[in-house]
Automatic annotation (TrEMBL), chain A:
<feature type="transmembrane region" description="Helical">
    <location>
        <begin position="161"/>
        <end position="180"/>
    </location>
</feature>
<feature type="transmembrane region" description="Helical">
    <location>
        <begin position="58"/>
        <end position="78"/>
    </location>
</feature>
<keyword id="KW-1133">Transmembrane helix</keyword>
<protein>
    <submittedName>
        <fullName>Amino acid/amide ABC transporter membrane protein 2, HAAT family</fullName>
    </submittedName>
</protein>
<keyword id="KW-0472">Membrane</keyword>
From TrEMBL, chain B:
<protein>
    <submittedName>
        <fullName>Amino acid/amide ABC transporter ATP-binding protein 1, HAAT family</fullName>
    </submittedName>
</protein>
<dbReference type="GO" id="GO:0016887">
    <property type="term" value="F:ATP hydrolysis activity"/>
</dbReference>
<dbReference type="InterPro" id="IPR003439">
    <property type="entry name" value="ABC_transporter-like_ATP-bd"/>
</dbReference>
<keyword id="KW-0067">ATP-binding</keyword>
<keyword id="KW-0813">Transport</keyword>
UniProtKB/TrEMBL annotation, chain C:
<dbReference type="GO" id="GO:0006865">
    <property type="term" value="P:amino acid transport"/>
</dbReference>
<feature type="transmembrane region" description="Helical">
    <location>
        <begin position="220"/>
        <end position="240"/>
    </location>
</feature>
<keyword id="KW-1003">Cell membrane</keyword>
<keyword id="KW-1133">Transmembrane helix</keyword>
<keyword id="KW-0813">Transport</keyword>
TrEMBL record, chain D:
<dbReference type="InterPro" id="IPR028082">
    <property type="entry name" value="Peripla_BP_I"/>
</dbReference>
<feature type="domain" description="Leucine-binding protein">
    <location>
        <begin position="27"/>
        <end position="362"/>
    </location>
</feature>
<keyword id="KW-0029">Amino-acid transport</keyword>
<keyword id="KW-0732">Signal</keyword>
<feature type="signal peptide">
    <location>
        <begin position="1"/>
        <end position="24"/>
    </location>
</feature>
């Protein structure tokens, strides 16, 4: 079950303080990177919610993010909604789509689930890529940023936007943590361990999976809205399965099923990517090798590794009752 | 309370359940006996809906549930334990019971509150833990306890749904004689209005808890009656003891 | 134009040609999965490697040098991968496998860029297969007929090996139940290695025969991956029949979709896939049950 | 574009502009090109030729040029992020590059808002010098319509009356074919059928070729580039269609960059482009020789964009430009005779005006070469909704 261990709380506080402090001192490019990290963090929290806790390893989260980004941009530009209603609409659309995908894929497990989500993600990608309404390969520009001038915040300023994005990460984290502690979250974790038993206990498995996937999809859609607001330009590449693959990489890099770890992973991934790509155009290969090394090491990512080390230092719980037959 | 009519199921040429008709009254304790491969677990799987029968029907508390799915039947008060432990391995014993209670109470899809900390779930967990003798171990992770304790939890999870009918598939399989006896003490202490159907291997213990006995052989009911009659039945001895000695 | 018999013949041949190319790719991937439960996302990269090797070798030894040696080179690379990455990850679960082989794709794309550069490479069709053949009233490129024939030949050979030989029986037993196969005294480890390497060689062969038709580019492995995965998911993971069925379905839907309903074409195949997943989550002809 | 954002950017820009004015003779150039992804080879060609151009013409300009390179990965959001970095962090005086029209579309508002001059060294989307034109964006490469429109009339003049067109289904493909169709039908030709294969998803063009064959056309006119161009030309030849149904197209189809990969299949294909390495003029001879010496390759049309971008930048500096503002004002005024012939910038759109060369790919002494059949006179693109502010300076 999901709990906030002291280590996790410490890591969260450090991340919050660190990112906010950096937001106040960083230069322009630092703020861009901070916003990039924040958007990726939202996506990977969403992914960890279903993949890490529910065992639903999705390769369509990039597509869900992209749907959010496109829905937001189209709602704001073509339909003329202001930013916040457009965000609500986009998040709802991502959630609805995720619910349908989750419901259809609920019967598939393991690699079948991965393949099925990959297929749905590519379907969305092809649709957007092909559709002239969405600007095809060239994409769409002009996604607005929310207008917070009423409370004295100008989100067109990079610093304000970075802080706004960090606040959204916090919101995402709270939603994810609350979900994990709700009845649905408990069921989701149970499903990961033993789907058959939960069904025998009376759980409508497909609905639980679809609902959890919808919540995750909503968060991915939120990440999409922020991505659109951040670059103010979107293209079908956002929906590509490689974005989902990269998100999965980040979750693994940080620590699957820890909710905090993926945030750490997002920080590491973005910083690493910028550092390495400054050195060589072949940075993909280096990222690939790091990924292989992390997975081969069998540690649960960077944060998972730290957690395991800390747990190893604590004394093991002792059996309170003698076993008649071990 | 639980009734089957002419239940039949075959896998290709092999009949695993052949015209099985059973009727359990409320509060009845019935033991199903039969050699390996007699179709006992297959019958359970059909009762809870994990397998669909080829023909025949299943009735729970007067309602035809043959077309209902596993989860729907569970919500009507049908619960089961498995011959092979089917637990939530990463969680603690308390969380296992809590999760079962949560789902059974229909809170498994809830979004707003933490059911594990709700009074009702906590109360159920406490009661069931007492019933299956796990009260002091609630905080132990499942993967850190012995096999015998896991067997107890297996039944505990089934009980945590507060069922009307519970099906137990060899609850003492693989545990030693001492623990097995303790288990039967627990079974006898269950509330009298709970209908219990048990697959059991150990004849003596079976006769100890059973109100009635059903014997299956090659998917067919070959005996259905009181334990004392079963004890005297030559047919039963031939089939059951023959197979028993072979094993 | 659609009432013209020639149109249907031509498009059927096109569909078959695409199907056979996909069959060569998917059969290795699917049998490896059926046997080892290993999903190799880098299978497309092996195909690209085969195409590059064929292109390079063709420059030195002529087309047939590339045709025969490229699959061997890919098999050798497969053997290296097997011992360094695959073997230790066999039991690591699908996610670890997906991620490791995803990482491999990144490495493979940049490796081909480093070795062969960013520019597309092309190789010529071998002299014997130049030109067209008149067939049922249409002129069809001989080389494409060769691809169809090659695919059918490989299918026939694999069917023979799987149904008539002892190795084939072992592989079928392994796909059915690997524990039982191990109990029967089959050297599972050696069988896995064999199947993996042969699967890689077939991917290399696919690359080699595709090279003269398509252009050889660093991202060709990534481009072919999704179609290949669709083929094996539609067909059912792990089965030879599934790979055949999936390849044919993909080839025909793609080809006729492209000319008859171009606006829906790209979504069509995914919609079909979704339908299969809803109705039969394990694919049309899964290896088990 | 959000007004406050533009204002914020402009504020940042003026403060940084004053900083850079201090050392006027140093021009900081931000080179935004794909160094990875599908267009990496194009990026490399432009990069090599740009450096060559600076070395060739920059020496006597009195200025020193510092180059900051960024990889846009052919991904619009990445291109935008890198653009912001170049403008706000590196504080470049001028940006050069952009291969993909998608990237150009993505960065257009940022460049325009920040008032940083951008020399477009490839991306050919019509909007960039049409409705989305900017006084800060000068295109030294080509526009999609420019390369294709004149070919329509020329083909009719050659006796081609009925044409079947094929191009990938994306903005550039549509623009190229639509411009050709306009020119072709205006001259009296008839388009008897069209196919739009899915962009970057189609590897086998066989299904579309069958339709072209059955259409009763005199010729086929296509646009493809990169790997798709190689596949298409080879597959067209393999179906034996070249003899009965001659293949025409936009010149990217048989670009010098990858015509070798097409091999004999490309022989006899007639296409039109703004640059061919075999153009017979002294500027081109010097360029080809220098580029070959530097890289060992024959320069492509992409290379010439890089070379002429450098030349244009140097010309602007020679005209007295020193910073973003003056460069932006000077760049649209440059004109010179380069390897492509006489070039000038159309003040109405800031798009290049250049002659178009019709060429046939033929077998030469060492491999395939380009035989120029005709040079069609330079023609400025229609304004297409471009409203240029009256004056920048």
């Amino acid at each position: 079950m999901f709990t906030h261990t002291p280590l996790r709380l410490t890591a969260l506080s450090l991340l919050a303080i660190g990112s906010l402090a950096y937001a106040f001192v960083a230069g322009f490019f630092g703020l861009e990177i901070l916003a990039e990290i924040a958007i990726l963090a939202i996506l990977v929290i969403a992914l960890d919610l279903v993949a890490g806790f529910g065992g639903m390893v999705s390769l369509c989260h990039g597509a869900l993010l992209g749907v959010g980004a496109y829905a937001f941009t189209v709602a704001a530009n073509a339909a003329g909604l202001s930013a916040f209603p457009a965000m609500v609409l986009a998040v709802a659309l991502s959630a609805g789509l995720a619910f349908v995908i989750g419901a259809i894929c609920a019967r598939s497990i393991g690699i079948y689930f991965i393949m099925a989500t990959l297929a749905f993600g590519q379907m969305a990608y092809s649709f957007v890529f092909q559709s002239p309404l969405f600007g095809g390969d060239d994409g769409l520009s002009g996604a607005p940023r929310p207008d917070l001038s009423a409370i004295g915040i100008d989100l067109t300023d990079s610093r304000a936007f970075a802080i706004y994005a960090i606040a959204m990460v916090a919101l995402t984290y709270l939603v994810a943590a609350a979900t994990l502690r709700s009845g649905l979250g408990r069921s989701l974790i149970g499903l990961h361990h033993n789907e058959k038993r939960l069904r025998a206990l009376g759980l409508t498995v497909w609905r639980a999976k679809a609902t959890a996937f919808a919540i995750s999809g909503a968060l991915a859609g939120l990440a999409g809205c922020l991505a659109a607001q951040h670059t103010q330009y979107i293209s079908p590449g956002l929906l590509s399965w490689t974005v989902s693959g990269e998100a999965l990489v980040v979750v693994i890099l940080g620590g699957l099923g820890t909710l905090v770890g993926p945030i750490v992973g997002a920080v590491l991934f973005v910083v690493l990517k910028h550092e390495i790509s400054a050195l060589t155009p072949y940075w993909h290969a280096i990222v690939g090798m790091i990924l292989i090394a992390v997975v081969m090491s069998r540690a649960n990512g960077v944060f998972g590794f730290v957690e395991a080390r800390m747990a190893a230092r604590k004394p093991k719980p002792v059996l309170q009752k003698a076993d008649a037959d071990a | 309370m639980l009734e089957t009519r002419n239940l039949t199921k075959s896998f290709g040429p092999i009949h695993v359940t052949k015209g099985v008709s059973l009727k359990l009254e409320k509060g009845e304790r019935r033991v199903i006996l039969g050699p390996n491969g007699a179709g006992k677990t297959t019958l359970f799987n059909q009762l809870v809906g994990e397998l669909t029968p080829d023909s025949g029907s299943i009735h729970l508390d007067g309602a035809d549930v043959t077309a209902l799915r596993v989860a729907d039947r569970a919500r009507l008060g049908l619960s089961r334990s498995y011959q092979k432990n089917t637990l939530f391995d990463g969680l603690t014993i308390g969380e296992n019971l809590g999760l079962a209670a949560t789902v059974a109470m229909g809170k498994g899809q809830g979004l707003w509150r933490d059911p594990l900390h709700s009074a009702e779930v906590k109360e159920t967990v406490r009661e069931v833990a007492a019933q299956v003798d796990l009260a002091p171990l609630l905080d132990m992770p499942v993967n850190a306890v012995s096999y015998g304790i896991r067997r107890q939890l297996e039944v505990g999870i089934a009980l945590a749904t507060r069922p009307k009918v519970i099906l137990m598939d060899e609850p003492t399989s693989g545990v030693g004689p001492e623990m097995s006896k303790g288990f039967h003490r627990l079974l006898k202490a269950l509330p009298r209005d709970l209908t219990v159907l048990i697959i059991e291997h150990d004849m003596d213990l079976a006769f100890d808890v059973a109100d009635t006995i059903t014997v299956l052989n090659y998917g067919e009911v070959v005996f259905d009656g009181l334990p004392e009659h079963a004890r005297e039945s030559q047919l039963l001895k031939d089939i059951y003891l023959g197979a028993w000695e072979d094993a | 134009m659609t009432t013209d018999l020639g149109f249907w013949v031509l498009q059927t041949l096109n569909a078959l040609q695409l199907s056979m190319l996909l069959f060569l790719l998917s059969v290795g991937l699917t049998v490896i999965f059926g046997l080892m439960h290993f999903v190799n996302l880098a299978h497309g990269s092996l195909y690209a490697f085969g195409a590059y090797m064929a292109a390079s070798l063709a420059g030195v030894l002529g087309y047939w040098g590339g045709f025969f040696l490229a699959p061997l080179a890919v098999a050798a690379l497969g053997a290296v991968l097997y011992f360094t990455l695959i073997r230790s990850q066999r039991r690591a679960g699908p996610m670890a496998q997906v991620l490791i082989t995803f990482g491999l794709i990144f490495v493979a794309v940049d490796a081909t860029r480093l070795i062969w550069g960013d520019l597309p490479i092309g190789i010529a069709v071998p002299a014997v297969f130049e030109g067209q053949l008149a067939l049922l009233g249409v002129e069809y490129p001989i080389y494409r007929l060769f691809i169809i024939a090659l695919g059918l030949a490989v299918l026939a050979a694999l069917t023979l090996v799987l149904t008539r030989t002892q190795v084939g029986a072992m592989i079928r037993a392994g796909v059915d139940n690997d524990q039982m196969a191990a109990c029967l005294g089959i050297n599972v480890e050696r069988m896995f290695f064999l199947v993996f390497v042969v699967g890689c060689a077939l991917a290399g062969l696919a690359g080699a025969v595709a090279a003269p038709v398509l252009s050889v580019t660093p991202d060709m492995g990534l481009q072919i991956l999704i179609p290949t995965l669709i083929v094996i998911v539609i067909g059912g993971l792990g089965s030879l029949k599934g790979a055949v069925a999936g390849s044919l379905i993909f080839g025909f839907v793609q080809t006729f979709g492209a000319v008859l309903m171009p606006t829906f074409n790209s979504v069509l195949i995914y919609a079909l896939l979704a339908a299969v997943l809803v109705i039969r989550p394990e694919g049309l002809l899964p290896a088990k049950g | 574009m959000n007004k406050t954002f533009r204002a914020a950017l402009a504020g940042l820009v003026t403060s940084t502009a004053m900083l850079s004015a201090a050392c006027a003779e140093d021009i900081k150039v931000g080179l935004l090109l794909p160094y990875s992804g599908v267009y990496a080879a194009l990026g490399q060609d432009i990069d090599d030729a740009f450096a060559l151009g600076l070395a060739t013409f920059g020496a006597d300009s009195g200025a020193t040029f510092e180059i900051v390179r960024e990889d846009d990965e052919v991904k619009p959001p990445v291109g935008l992020a890198k653009t912001k970095k170049l403008i706000l962090q590196d504080e470049v005086d001028v940006m050069v590059g952009v291969v993909s029209s998608g990237v150009l579309g993505a960065i257009r508002d940022t460049v325009d808002g920040a008032g940083v001059p951008l020399i477009v060294a490839n991306a050919g989307n019509d909007e960039a010098t049409g409705e989305a034109c900017s006084p800060f964006i000068t295109r030294i490469s080509f526009s999609n319509q420019q390369v294709n429109r004149p070919m329509g009339k020329w083909m009719v003049d050659q006796g081609v009356k009925k044409v079947f067109t094929i191009a990938p289904d994306y903005a550039a493909g549509r623009q190229m074919i639509d411009a050709f169709t306009t020119g072709f039908t205006a001259a009296g030709g008839e388009v008897v059928g069209q196919e739009w294969p899915a962009f970057q998803k189609t590897q086998d063009f066989g299904p579309f070729l069958a339709n072209a064959k059955a259409s009763g056309a005199d010729a086929v006119y296509v646009f493809f580039a990169g790997g798709e161009a190689i596949s298409f030309v080879k597959q067209y030849d393999s179906f034996g269609m070249k003899a009965e149904l001659p293949l025409y197209g936009s010149g990217f189809l048989t670009s010098a960059l990858y015509v070798e990969a097409q091999g004999p299949a490309a022989e006899g294909v007639i296409t039109a482009l703004h640059y061919v390495p075999t153009l017979d003029n002294p500027e081109n001879a010097a360029f080809v020789a220098a580029f070959k010496e530097k890289t060992g390759r024959i320069p492509s049309e992409y290379a010439v964009h890089g070379y002429d971008s450098a030349r244009a930048l140097v010309e602007a500096v020679k005209a007295g430009a020193t910073d973003r503002e003056t460069l932006a004002a000077a760049l649209p005024k440059v004109s010179f005779t380069g390897p492509r012939g006489e070039l000038r910038i159309d003040p109405a759109t800031n798009n290049i005006v250049q002659p178009i060369h019709v060429y046939e790919t033929v077998a030469g002494a060492d491999g395939l070469t380009q035989k120029v059949l005709a040079t069609l006179p330079a023609e400025a693109d229609p304004v297409n909704g471009c409203a240029m502010p009256a004056a920048v300076n």
